[in-house]
Amino acid sequence: MKNMENKILIEQISRWLQDQIKKAGTQGALCGLSGGIDSAVVAAIAQRALGHNFLALIMPCHSLVRDVEDAQRVAEHLGVAHETVDLTPVYDLFKSILPPGPPMADANLKVRLRMVTLYYYAAGRQALVLGTSNKSEIAVGYFTKYGDGAADLLPIADLLKIEVRGLAQTLELPAWLLDKPPTAGLWAEQTDEAEMGVTYEELDRFLNESTYHLPTTVSPAAQERIFTMMRVSSHKRQPIPVFRKDQTASV
Question: What pLDDT, on a 0 to 100 scale, did the predictor assign at position 129?
């Protein structure tokens, strides 16, 4: 039953992508391929929806060899058109003219360089950029503003991580990919769950229970961590504040 629901959802997302591309008057779409499950699911559905009008970009930047190899394996498994753009020299040059910054600034620079590359390719192909963030990540701000958070279309942004995994199984993505610990690949041994301080299972359960106004079964510590991430990342989910000259304010 669940597999049939996933097949219907995959078809719905595929038609939605086709409709969005048609409405925009563009020629296709592209996305970054990281070697993780989210980008693999987006690439698989986009390939079904758009065929040769879809391109996947693999963009290593001081990346782990395994992640680059995994991205290439995913591309070959799906049979998608793909290109590899090594951003390491660009990153190194950029860093050489910038003052030293904190580790997270360095990590975000890598992600934003990938965004720039995606939009460069998109302009040349008259294509739209597909984001690969899921609902769980967006809810707590686990994405880089104007980095992987920048996209024209968000195919899986209304799906929890567990739902994305379900689609991956229905799409028959490789077992090794489903078993791979989620990671942004920003530094050695980095994993999403270790960085967030909660597991995706806890996060998804909390979000699902909140959506349906059910009593939470998540531990108080996990709840506090989730609330904190939501609060400090709220600006990422809001439109950019604009000063309105017709608004009156007391001085």
Answer: 98
